[in-house]
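Blinded run. Sample ID left blank on purpose so nobody reads anything into the name before looking at the predicted structure. Input follows.
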Amino acid sequence: MKILFDHQIFEMQLYGGISRYFYELISKINETKLCEFNLSIKYSSNQYLKNDTFFKEKIKDLKKYVEFLPNIEFKGKGIIYKLLRSIGFVDFHYSANENYSINNIKKGNFDVFHPTYYKNYFLNYIKSKPFVLTVFDLIPEIFPQYAKDELFFLESKKILLKKAKRIIAISQNTKKDIINYYDINDENINVIYLGSSLNSLIDFKKINKYFLNKVPSRYILFVGNRQGYKNFNFFIESIYSLLIKDKSLNIVCAGGNNFSNEELILFNKFKIIDRIFYFEVNNDILKYLYSNALVFVFPSLYEGFGIPILEAFSCNCPIVLSNSSSFPEVAGDAAIYFDLKDKESLIEAIKSIINNDDLRQELITKGKNRVKEFSWEKTMKETISVYKSII
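Blinded prediction complete.
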């Protein structure tokens, strides 16, 4: 059995949850040799491919693409980029990737096609070959105000959902949303959970002394992007009073972009600008931050799965989660939950952990047991079972 993966997400993301998923899935297939595969891409700056010796050997002509307006960020950049791409006006590398995928699809040297995102360019070339579609969340459908860049894909996504031989949802919550929004047959959707790429072992050679000197000793951790549905402003507006009362308490933000002017204004408003820190991260820095945090807070309005939950569990970090979407399904009883609409509920959840060592240790133990239920190898094996079921 041979699987063909296309280029889409590896040209869209330098790093991120979806390209991490496909990178881990393909890597595990390669390690176990349970089936053959081909990744159809010529140009990419994706960090997972770039830093992996196997992929550099496998895709010998992989070249870095020229990024769209590098180092310039502004509102609507993503929408403009997608529009220019749709009319063929952006750098030729993007059309070269799509043409390369089309040529591989036309050759037909595969049993199952697995597109890595929602563009339906391949439908005119795939003929009778089956394809599997992975759906990660329905944020653009449920919170369109927070996902304007993704609205570009909605019509194409709808078409693919109707034509896919099988759909993979990354949580029961995502499956439920697919059924509700698109009226898809329940039997055509397989739920396959994700894994974590982190463990608790830290290579301090990959952590510079400047970083170690800057990290505060007592902090609440926030990980990843902070825009829109990530609910970061609600998080700050809820807990700033804790920092005012406890002068030794701080907030650390890991990954995502550096603080925006709007965020700095918010920090100044609450007089906590000197108590909140931002760090770019690699895996070892991220593991260090999880391992030394008092608590990790994940206040999102919605997540399809929430890989940082597993990362925190892997690094012995207790968690506070919003009681929304897939969170209870993934974390079970190994986290403390708060009411999304209640700021006091979030404060009390955090205080219950940082002021109670016994509860903190109980959550760490439960998290270590909970994370054992998830792995990329399990993701890969269940995905291969889906492939086999449709050929």
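Unblinding after everyone has recorded impressions. The first strand starts at residue 2 and ends at 5.
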